[in-house]
Inverse folding.
């Protein structure tokens, strides 16, 4: 069954750049989409989106009109305007590259040179040499190649649970004007033909809002203009969400598997299921993701009195994976060994100025980081473990303010409000108002628990500061102006894998690393992505054991479920290691060692459980 013809992975690159916080991929499509590379921006912070839009419009000499903040749907308009801007500028840049010749130093030649060796398009480009320069056959071949050049997909991410209803005139706005729904509307009404990535689980009312927009549905024989991508943790989650959407007549274009812990941003640990067996289950059963829902989708059209569009029954979604991949061997393992359609590479691109807007100081801190410098912190106001960089300027600013006796943030944006301990309307636990009340309740700023309260960072604002600083500095450099660096605190949320990358890289250099065309940019002793994830889950097991109260039945059951699932994952790895041969540069030995260590740990946990029973 065919994969969606709107997917760019099989035709150009078979990697993508996932969303990286609210700011650090906010203009990545502008930088990489003309080269055929797909990437994802966050739609959390529409204020940041408008700021970035303004900065790039000024740099490119394009007209910019801010949205009136009194407009009820200002959020949707900001997002729509920015996506339209990205679409227009990416297409213009691609057209400029297309207009060039195939000379050795042209950007057009670079465009094809960066393609993977497995790309049929690259093979056709290499075949140009068979035709004499200026011959009719070569002119035809060059024209054909030019017509097949495509931009990468400009995709956008919505965290489904970040669906705040803003407060206006002392009352919450109506539910249809909540944050996630307005972000969806802004995306749906834009000219950008990209995909909308939903993460963090099901939001029924948000998914219901998709039905308002025809662009997510097939139009006759034409495939839907906008695709739906669901970020999932396992196959069960994919089936559940796929069914929910199918009942609304919606096809999922892609299921995006992400490691529970070996990733950037918020970490949603599984109940002991590990990435290897998860991707293998998708490999074996991916046909079900299309077959099980075609009749459900067809039923929706019939209930609406509509003809079932051609292609619905044969639709087969793509399956991709991301989380801690660090060299070409692991890229090949997921593509060839597990049948994935694309592999996400996020954190390494934080060290590529051509791809990700990161301020100089933070990028230097990332480049000098070592294993252990990226850690799971309790700093997110959402109450979900959050990958953090030790020594970031945001952390330094947070504790400086605490030591001065004024903890908390002024909460300039309020996207992460959720707490109603002291207020009628939700507030953010990183806000100054909340922390002052909570610390007073705990006994004052000298109390032992005060630092626990104060450790929440203003991430919805500070995750964007690094991008703004980089874009302003970049604009000044391009215009020949000097600019003083801002001292605004910067939060950053890389995955632990970035500790193995130790300097800035060029875009083509990183792509050559991904495709295995140059010596590896990471050392050979770097643990396999499966081994790194397993190590993180052993740390998580330690945390679970420490927080488990033997007399609490739910705690004991949760720990036991984790133990059983982890044991099953280890058994799968044992079986896989017995037959798998390491690809060149693939450190499978590190996985064997980690599996052995994990088995010893589990034996101890089982013995402890037997004694307590």
């Amino acid at each position: 069954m065919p994969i969606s013809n709107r997917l760019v992975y099989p035709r150009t690159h078979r990697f993508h750049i996932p969303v990286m916080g609210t700011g650090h991929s906010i203009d990545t499509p502008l930088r990489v989409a003309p080269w055929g590379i797909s990437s994802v921006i966050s739609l959390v912070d529409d204020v940041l989106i408008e700021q970035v839009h303004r900065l790039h419009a000024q740099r490119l000499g394009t007209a910019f009109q801010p949205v009136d903040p009194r407009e009820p749907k200002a959020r949707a308009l900001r997002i729509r305007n920015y996506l339209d801007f990205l679409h227009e500028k990416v297409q213009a840049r691609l057209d400029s590259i297309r207009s060039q010749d195939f000379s050795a130093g042209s950007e057009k030649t670079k465009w094809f040179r960066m393609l993977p060796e497995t790309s049929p398009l690259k093979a056709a480009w290499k075949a140009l040499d068979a035709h004499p320069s200026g011959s009719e056959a070569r002119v035809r071949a060059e024209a054909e190649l030019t017509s097949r050049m495509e931009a990468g997909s400009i995709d956008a991410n919505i965290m489904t649970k970040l669906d705040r209803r803003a407060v206006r005139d002392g009352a919450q706005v109506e539910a249809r004007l909540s944050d996630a729904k307005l972000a969806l509307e802004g995306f749906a009404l834009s000219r950008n033909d990209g995909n909308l990535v939903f993460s963090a689980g099901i939001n029924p009312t948000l998914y219901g809002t998709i039905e308002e927009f025809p662009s997510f549905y097939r139009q006759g024989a034409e495939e839907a203009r906008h695709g739906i991508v669901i970020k999932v943790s396992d196959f069960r989650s994919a089936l559940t969400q796929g069914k929910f959407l199918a009942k609304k007549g919606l096809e999922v274009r892609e299921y995006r598997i992400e490691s529970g812990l070996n990733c950037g941003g918020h970490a949603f640990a599984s109940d002991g299921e590990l990435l290897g067996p998860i991707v293998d289950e998708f490999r074996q059963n991916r046909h079900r993701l299309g077959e099980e829902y075609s009749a459900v989708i067809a039923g929706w059209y019939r209930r609406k009195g509509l003809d079932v569009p051609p292609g619905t029954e044969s639709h087969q979604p793509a399956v991709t994976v991301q989380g801690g991949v660090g060299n070409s061997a692991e890229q090949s393992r997921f593509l060839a060994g597990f049948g994935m359609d694309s592999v996400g590479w996020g954190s390494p691109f934080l060290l590529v100025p051509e791809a990700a807007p990161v301020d100089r100081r933070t990028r230097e801190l990332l480049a000098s980081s070592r294993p252990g410098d990226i850690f799971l912190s309790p700093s997110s106001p959402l109450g979900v473990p959050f990958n953090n960089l030790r020594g970031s300027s945001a952390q330094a600013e947070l504790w400086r303010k605490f030591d001065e006796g004024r903890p908390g943030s002024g909460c300039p944006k309020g996207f992460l409000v959720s707490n109603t301990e002291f207020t009628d309307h939700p507030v953010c636990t990183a806000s100054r108002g909340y922390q002052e009340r909570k610390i007073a309740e705990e006994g004052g700023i000298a109390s032992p628990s005060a630092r626990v309260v104060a450790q929440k960072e203003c991430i919805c604002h500070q995750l964007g500061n690094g991008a703004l600083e980089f874009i302003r500095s970049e604009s000044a450099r391009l215009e020949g102006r000097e600019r003083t660096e801002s001292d605004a605190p910067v939060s950053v949320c890389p995955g632990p894998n970035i500790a193995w990358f130790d300097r800035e890289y060029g875009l083509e250099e990183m792509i050559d690393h991904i495709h295995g065309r140059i010596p590896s940019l990471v050392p050979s002793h770097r643990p396999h992505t499966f081994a790194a994830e397993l190590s993180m889950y052993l740390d998580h097991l330690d945390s679970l054991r420490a927080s488990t109260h033997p007399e609490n039945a739910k705690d004991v059951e949760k720990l036991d479920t984790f133990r059983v699932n982890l044991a099953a994952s280890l058994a799968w790895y044992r079986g896989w290691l017995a037959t798998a041969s390491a690809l060149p540069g693939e450190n499978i030995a590190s996985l064997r060692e980690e599996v052995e260590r994990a088995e010893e740990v589990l034996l101890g946990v089982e013995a402890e459980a037997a004694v307590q029973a």
Observations:
- Residues 15-349 form one domain.
- The chain has a mean pLDDT of 94.
